[in-house]
Design goal:
Layout lengths: L11 H33 L3 H38 L12 H20 L1 H16 L4 H25 L2 H4 L1 H25 L1
Helix pairs in contact: 4-7, 5-7
Amino acid sequence: MKLKRQDFAIDISLAKRLLRLGMPVMFQDAIISIGGMVLQSVINGFGVLFVAGFTATNKLYGILETAAISYGYAISTFVAQNKGAGKDILSLFISAEEVQAQQVLQVAHHYLMIMSTFLIILYDLHTYRSALQGMGDTVIPMVSGMVEFGMRVSAAIFLPRFIGQEGIFYAEILAWSGACVLLVTVYYKRIAFFKT
């Protein structure tokens, strides 16, 4: 690679665009960091033992957050590429004529917004199910699968009668929620038992 003088020329329009994109990110990071410092100053007032316990959890949280950050970067790149190409990520899974594709995408976008709003429940479900399995309990996780089935089927049959097609969108969320309630309840009962 050979650098030439013109390679160092400043592209004013590109620099403005990069600043317009970069400044909000810089501000976001600064605000988050300041929030962290304020939180830490409050935590310091609770004593050494509290700080040690909080710090231990934060170290684990940092490891867990790495997966979320990596996922975020991957999504950012993927969305930027699709925006540049004028494509919608959902269109990868749809094969239809233009008019039909737009109608299908409207349904898909609406469902995706609902699902993504409640995705934390699904993550909790998998976390607690795996934790119980790690404790050697495979029965309650199996029962949670039956609860998921019951909630999903019930919601699919009954919700559309009351709120139309929208009800189908909530069948998964209710299935996750029912299973998650069972798993969380049993998990914390087991933890309380181990502490005594």
